[in-house]
Design goal:
Low-confidence stretches: none
Strand order of the largest sheet: 1-2-4-3-5
Structural class: alpha/beta
Number of strands: 5
Strand content: 15-25%
Shape: globular
Helix content: 25-40%
Length: 182
């Protein structure tokens, strides 16, 4: 990987990166080993709650996993603890495979260590329901996160969507078609 990075960006590319941006990066580079051991939450200061049902559909119950910082933000003097911004994550899989917390678990945990509450969701596949069923599942997750914001210490007005591949398509569609009803 180092050889490819140096070939594409130059030998001293890291020196050109803004130091503030570097603080937002993972301390270690991606590796196959890290991807396969990412489910080990002991490597991150996060709490994980798995398999929470957020929506019942005729074909199955849709579940999500919640990642939060292990140590809650401290309240300002005389105030209450600040609420966490939320990120709803939609996995890749060509609309026909994959699952929540599938191959990007380390990213979910990294976001949680940075102070986000991450809700990694399932959605129905194309063989279960035609489009826009997947979009409906995303909207249901947004509504669920808003309805349960207090329970998870989340600011219901600060919710972002993060999708990869087919999950990215669903996330963008939800963002572009936001109707204020979420």
């Amino acid at each position: 990987m180092n050889k490819e990075m140096h070939g594409a960006l130059g030998k001293n590319y890291e020196a050109d990166i803004n130091p503030g941006a570097l603080t937002q990066c993972q301390p270690k580079r991606w590796s196959l080993h890290r991807s396969f051991t990412a489910h080990r939450t002991d490597r991150y200061a996060v709490t994980v709650e798995r398999d929470i049902v957020y929506c019942e559909r005729p074909s199955r119950a849709l579940k999500l996993d919640v990642y939060r910082p292990k140590h809650s933000p401290q309240p300002a003097e005389g105030g209450s603890a600040p609420l966490l911004p939320a990120v709803i994550v939609l996995h890749p899989g060509a609309w026909s495979s994959g699952d929540k917390s599938w191959i990007f678990t380390a990213h979910d945990m990294a976001l949680a260590t940075k102070g986000y509450a991450v809700f990694d969701i399932q959605y129905r596949f194309i063989n279960e329901v035609r489009w826009p069923g997947q979009l409906d599942d995303c909207r249901a997750a947004i509504r669920w996160v808003r309805a349960h914001a207090a329970e998870f210490g989340v600011d219901a007005n600060r919710i972002a969507l993060l999708g990869r591949s087919s999950g990215g398509h669903i996330a963008l569609s939800a963002a572009y078609q936001a109707r204020g009803e979420h």
